[in-house]
Amino acid sequence: MQTRPIEFLGAAGQRLSARLDLPDGEPVGFALFAHCFTCSKSSLATVRIARALARRGLGVVRFDFTGLGESAGEFAAATFSSDVRDLAAVARQMADQGMAPELLVGHSLGGAAVVAAAADVPSAQALAVIGAPFHPQHLEGLLGGGLEKIMQAGEAEVDLGGRPFRIRRAFIEDLQAQDQGARLAALHRPLLILHSPEDRVVEIGNATQIFMAARHPKSFVSLAGADHLLTRPEDAAYAADVIAAWASRYLPASQETAEALASGVARADARGVEGFQVTIRTHDLRFTADEPADLGGSEAGPTPYALVAAGLAACTAMTVRMYAARKAWPLARVQVRVEHSKAAGRTPQDIFRRELAIEGELDVEQRARLLEIAGKCPVHRTLEGGSTIETAAVEPDEGRVR
Length: 402
What we know:
The chain is α/β, with parallel strands linked by helices. The protein has helices at about 45-55, 80-95, 110-115, 145-155, 170-175, 180-185, 205-215, 235-245, 250-265, 305-325, 365-375, 380-385, and strands spanning about 1-10, 15-20, 30-35, 60-65, 105, 125-130, 155-160, 165-170, 190-195, 220, 265-270, 280, 285-290, 330-340, 350-360. Strands 1-2-4-3-5-6-9-10 form an 8-stranded mixed beta sheet, sandwiched between helices. Strands 11-12-13 form a 3-stranded antiparallel beta sheet. The two termini are about 20 Å apart.
């Protein structure tokens, strides 16, 4: 997994500091993460969940809202609505850079923000909210006596989570004007709600209200034992596991993988113009292929020739085992090692050296016969006999080739 800094412009033109967490191979899709009200892109829960999602194949953007962390602007001048506009602005710029977010994830008030922003993020296929309030106005309850000061004086400094924040009356009035119930009813996107019954900041009843207001498909997962900020690493990891598994049903890349399983094809996707890494999808698997370092690669996965060698090794083992079973011979195990090399001056230049380790109470003739059968596996015949390769140009289709 790799992390790199990235910047966006907020809806009002201010600089928003962000981080992009990427998997080692090509991402199966991209997610946009919105942190909690007093958090930042570097808060423990934000970092842990974003990186855990990246390890599961997603590219994740996490950014600081206006006036928080390393982002420019004045926090006191921001409102819930302006944060929602910033979310939509970041999503548009991600799309412009080939990273259109297909999954929106929000923690606490960030969860309410992604629900509010979803209508302005057409690429979003699904949403996940963690410890989110049903209504943004829930934040007023955390202000204590500071709320009265804000409403009377127009602004006041309040203590939230042990840190001072200056909040203005406009922020409170903006919270009160939100109609989150209507937004949830009109969401028309799959929604995953994760909440802890032990959450003392945003009570579990909020999850019930969100679930009841939203339409299907919707899912609820209990984060039993977790606190609001998911300070235990195992809680953040569990949330990320659940989100990644749940979202795989709705992300286009996962749908493409299911199609490959049905049609028995293999697909390679190479994005950008640098490096050798490509994403391979076949059956229900997704992995990275690469080249060795001495050829300019980063060794993030098997080489193309290693994949061919793997095909020969797999086919050989299957063929030998199937023949022994048909003969009812006591074959306990067969191991096949295949190594590819090239020999200059020879025709053909490509050499696949195959070694078989056969275990079982077999006599000399049986072992010799199994070695002979190894040479009759279909991939062996294909490599020795040659093949016809037909190539056609097709139009890019985001649903098929990713």
